[in-house]
Every structure is written in structure tokens, then in C-alpha cells.
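call fold(seq) -> C-alpha cells
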Amino acid sequence: MPLDGCINHAVIPSEGISAASHLFALIVESELRAASASAFSDESEADYLQASIAAMDERLSSYALIARAAISVTVPLLTRLFSEKFAHLQQGRGFSDPTQTLEELYSLLLITGHVLADEGQGETPLVPDAIQSQFMDVMETDKHPVVILCGSIIKFAEQSLNPEMRASFFSPRLMEAIVWFLARWSATYLMPPDENKENASSDNHKAKHHIKVLLNFCEEDNQGKPVLDLIIHISMTTFISYPGERTLQELTCQELLHGLVRRKNVCVHLVELDSWRELANAFANGRTLFSLNSAHQRSLAQTLVLSASGMKTPEASSQYVRNLTNHMTANLVELSSRSDLKCVAEQPDIILLVNCLLERLRGASSATEPRTQRAIYEMGYKVLNSLLMFMEVYKHESTVVYLLLRFVVDWVDGQIIYLEARETAIVVGFCMRLLQLYSSHNIGKVI
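ret:
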């Protein structure tokens, strides 16, 4: 069997398909039994079940290869198991400890995600060949076995928005699996570009019609917008309701949300959602999201700025970026202008605020594109004097100095090819002053 997941079912005899389905059923049964047993186990034998999703990728990918060899059997199996576990969870609510069932659902989400979709690796992944070549006789989208399975998982994920359900069942660990699944699944099935619908593995009309039936589920004119809106609400929930859960928030920022804005056809709908505007407003003007760590601040800022590509005009994109960054720059300018800055600068909360704002501006700078370049230039220009002040005040605070220099590097790198002579002179002059300040305080130091 090829290792890239491409399986030609025409050359797999019925005995092979039967053997693969039986083997996969045994694997899933074993995984669920181990997951259930690990729920209350403190022994080292359970460590591999508690490993990160990334660490389990190789094992789960091998399971997916087996499942795809008998996809017509394994997809209904996964649907049945997922429905049973979810029903068991609801039936036992308030009466029994759900930990074992939650661990089983965690494993099912990871296994199913690998079966249904491939990793993008920088490109929009196609529907796996094994799925394209099966279920040819299904003519209605809502009756497609893959759609039924995906719909079940999406409905389950939606339950995490209910505060009572979230408190009862949706642990940070289970939310990690949900966010990971949505990130991997959405890259293939959510608002797929038109060319993906034409890339059926077979040239015949029936195969092309089948792939359209499957992908119609989350097209723009079907369930695409409601599912996209749900994903944003789930993302906000991970930020607000799971403070300090770094792995969960990393998956949300760097995998789920960042994956969405890589596709312009998704951004067009993303920026029209009230939920996305609420996220952008909370990030730009609120205090809640300052609880994210610095790397996630940077990633979320980059993601929000990249979504500007979905605006209808360059002017709208620029205004969107200005609205997103004006409060950040105003905060830095106001702080740097305080008469007591040298007295308060070393306070932990002030250092944290400065670091967060610098990371956000750095993330925005790294998302510079032609239609947002001017707004990003203005963002950096507003804080030039503030940066010089902070370089002086924080000369012995290496973390702040490092972030400050990193922001300047990213900002200049994104701007330099667009600048006219006057603007270039301003930027070069600022950089020279900054370097002089840095060198006067940091001779012999390397950051």
C-alpha cells in the first residue's frame, strides 16, 4: 500500500477490503479500550495516550491508511461509534463520571480527522482519493456517509458553546481535539475552491458529480457560512473560557484561525461575520485577550491583518487594519509619554503590557501585503519616537529590547520595497538612531 495515502480501490480485492475493515475495527476497539483505561491511570504505560497530537501523528496516519482501504465500511463505523459515545455522554449527565467517555471521544476525533483529511503542508489539501472513489451512488449531500459523520462531529463541537455543557464535559484536552479536527477538516471541506471540485481522481462525469455532492455540504451557499461562524465562536471560547491553556490556544491561533485566512475565498465571508468583527474588536480594544501569551498575541495579530484580503476594496482593507491597530499604537504612545515612565516602567504589569503590544505590532507587520502596506507603515510611523524612549528606559531589560528590535526588523522588512525616497530617509534615520542607542547601552552584548 502506498505511504502517501493514495489507494486505488480497483486493485484491492474484496478479501483485502474485508480484512482492512476488520483490522481497522480491531484497532479502534483497542484504542478506545486503552483510552478508557487511561482516564484514571497514573501509570507510565498510559503516557503515549496523553502525548500531544503532533506526537501521535505517525501512528494515526497509519490507521488512516488502513481505514481508507475499506472506506465504505470504516466511515459508517466511525459515525456509529461517535454517535454512541455522544449519546452515552448525554444519558449519563449528572449521574456518572464522564471521564472515560471523554477520553474515547478524544481518540475518535483524532482517528476520524486523519481518515477524512490530509495535512495541508502549505497547500489546500484535496479530498483523499479513497473517499473520492467511493459512495458513487449517493446523489444527495445530506445522505452522504462522510457528510453524516462530519455533521455529527460539528454538532458535538457546537455543544461546547453551552456554558453548562462546557463545564460538564469539554475539558481543555477534549477542546484540543475538537480544534485540531476543525483545523484539519476545514482545510479540505469548508468552502472548498472551485478547482477542488474539478479535481476528481477520475475523469468520468459520475466521479466529478460525486465530489460536488460531497463538497456541497459546506459551500458558501449551503452550510459553509454557519460552520465558519461556529468555528469563530469556538475560537473565542477557547481564548476566554480556557485561560492559560497554551496548547489549546496555540492550536486555535496557529492552526485553526491561521488556516482560515490563508484562503481568500474564505476571508471574503470571514470579514462579513459579526463573530469575526467581535473577535477583532476584542483584540484591538479590549483587555481580555491580553491573557494570551506573547507568541499567540503575535499569531492572532497576523491572522486578523491577513483577513483584510477579504475586504472588497484596498481602501476598506487599509481602514480595517487602522481600526485594528490604532488602539495598540495609542497605548504605546500614551505609555511612552508618561512623566513617571521611568518610575513605573519596571513594574511587572507595565512590562507585560509593553511586551504584548510589541508582539501584536510585530504580528501585524509580518502580515504586510500590497493592499495593507500603507496602513502598516502608518502604524509603525506612529510609534517611532515611543520606541526610542522604550529603548532608553528598558536598556537593561533584555526581553523588551529583543521584542522591540524584532518588531523593527519585521516592520522594515515588510515596508522597504514600497517606500518612496522621503519615507525611506525617515526609516533609515530612525534605524540609525535606534542602533546608536542600542550600541551605547549594549556594547559586547548579543541579543
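The CA atoms of residues 336 and 358 lie 13 Å apart.
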